[in-house]
Specification:
About 30% of the residues lie in helices and about 25% in strands. It is built from 14 helices and 23 strands. Helix 1 links the parallel strand 1 and strand 2. Helix 13 runs parallel beside helix 14.
Length: about 475
């Protein structure tokens, strides 16, 4: 049962992926296929659009994590981080002599060794910043490789090999695999690293904020002396983890070397005009659909990273203007009866707060509904019970769903939706709590008015609420 060490041997021709049905894993399978490998995979079930994508590539998918999936003796097995050691297929792998690796490990060994790896890390903003950075490089004609933790609308997949010098990658602090509990980003060989924020999250992985910081310090430690760290220097936790960096540090944020200002927001078109400042002087002015202060600084970070590599304002302007956004990040999914419905991934209280503030800026004085499902490992626990009360301040009407599946969480550690509703009401806002998706849909459909904005916030499927809500509002 040899774990892959070092570079990928030339003898590897066939690769089997355990957990191939996820968005990132399916996209990575496509990268391997493009690179000439014969790829197979297994999962408990694969559904559109990933099933269609894998079928289009001719990749065989085996349903169920069964020992027989390895009977064809692949040259290498890639183990996704959804795989548990007790699964039958995992046990068969460990009992065999087949070499194996995690997806981040193989990505680093096969695709990043000779590239300029731009690793985008942080508790918040990773997906958006990765997507806009990759698009900026692509729009400048540089054909980057990329791995994005969401579907950027400018690309037809979440990962691509590319032929250019840059590889832009979302650096997730979540653990890598059942045999590697370190953060994924430690495998990504950063030449440039962006750190947007450091807060406590992933309560199923990290004990506390100091534990989170220790992972980010390890990332800072592996940026080489000739590399570059782009750090949100007006955030205390970011500054703290970056103090011992041996490379150039490009400081960005309010009052920092790299700063930005919002010049105007067109609420009709949903676009923001902004200027990037370097040492207080205008470096370039741009327009994009990424609205809000947090998105301003996501874009400033991308500029600070790319300017070091020779990109000019003129090269970046077209990229900002042509960026189409990321699915599930302030994504407008319908406008029935002039009621704008958005889908957003926000679930951490900081993400909820800045997302709603951005929507307030984007849509002006229109009545804003926030419908929130506590679904992530952290949001289903009490750790942020009090913090959520102020996170919804920019919304006019707040609807809190019952927390998703708290069965494995100790009763005294469970997040309480009813308590959050009471706390928000105590702040003078309209707030309601419901146990089922159908109840929420019925209430919103009965009370939403033309020109209202309804933001659905969840990091999961939320019981199919998006389609149900659009259908009910259109009826």
């Amino acid at each position: 049962m040899p774990l892959l060490q070092g570079a990928l041997p030339d003898t590897v021709k066939t690769v089997h992926i355990m957990g191939i049905g996820g968005t990132a894993m399916a996209a990575f399978a496509g990268m391997l296929k493009d690179a000439g490998y014969v790829v197979t995979g297994s999962d408990t079930g694969v559904y559109p659009p990933m099933s269609d994508y894998l079928a289009s590539l001719g990749i065989e998918v085996m349903i169920g994590y069964n020992a027989k999936n390895l009977d064809h003796r692949p040259d290498l097995v890639v183990v996704g981080n959804v795989i548990r050691a007790e699964y039958e297929e995992a046990q068969a792998l460990l009992a065999s002599e087949l070499p194996y690796a995690s997806m981040p490990q193989l990505l680093g060994a096969r695709f990043l060794e000779s590239r300029h790896s731009i690793v985008v890390a942080g508790t918040h903003g990773k997906t958006t910043t990765t997507a806009i950075t990759a698009h900026l490089v692509d729009a400048a004609g540089k054909d980057p490789g990329f791995l994005i933790g969401g579907l950027a609308k400018n690309f037809d997949r979440t990962a691509r090999t590319g032929t250019g010098a840059q590889f832009v990658i979302e650096g997730d602090e979540y653990d890598t695999a059942f045999f590697d509990k370190g953060p994924k980003f430690l495998h990504y060989r950063p030449k440039t690293a962006i750190i947007s924020s450091v807060e406590f999250d992933h309560a199923d992985i990290y004990r506390d904020l100091d534990h989170v910081k220790s992972s980010f310090r390890k990332l800072v430690d592996i940026v080489p002396a000739d590399g570059c760290l782009v750090a949100r220097w007006d955030h205390d936790n970011v500054r703290d983890v970056c103090l011992d960096a041996v490379c150039e540090v490009r400081r960005y944020g309010q009052g920092q070397t790299w700063d930005g200002r919002i010049d105007a927001v067109d609420t009709a078109r949903g676009v923001q005009k902004f200027t990037v400042l370097h040492e207080g002087n205008p470096w370039g002015s741009f327009e994009s659909i990424l609205v809000g202060e947090h998105n301003l600084y996501n874009q400033v970070a991308a500029v600070a990273a790319l300017e070091r590599q020779g990109f000019t304002p003129a090269q970046l302007a077209n990229g900002f203007a042509s960026f189409l956004g990321v699915k599930r990040r302030q994504e407008v999914i319908g406008d029935p009866r002039h009621i704008t419905v958005l889908d957003d991934f926000a679930h951490h209280p900081t993400a909820v707060k800045v997302t709603l503030e951005a929507l307030r800026l984007r849509f002006g004085g229109r009545r804003l509904w926030a419908i929130f499902e506590p679904r992530s490992a952290t949001s289903r626990r009490k750790v942020f019970q009090e913090a959520y009360a102020s996170a919804f301040g920019a919304a006019d009407v707040v609807v809190i769903a019952h927390a998703h599946d708290q069965g494995r969480i100790a009763e005294d550690d469970r997040f309480e939706s009813a308590t959050l509703v009471s706390d928000i009401r105590a702040r003078g806002q309209e707030a309601f709590g419901y146990d089922t998706v159908d109840e929420i849909v019925a209430v919103v459909a009965a009370n939403a008015l033309p020109w209202d904005v309804v933001a659905v916030l969840s990091n999961g499927g939320f019981g199919g609420i998006h389609k149900k809500l659009l259908a009910a509002l259109a009826a």
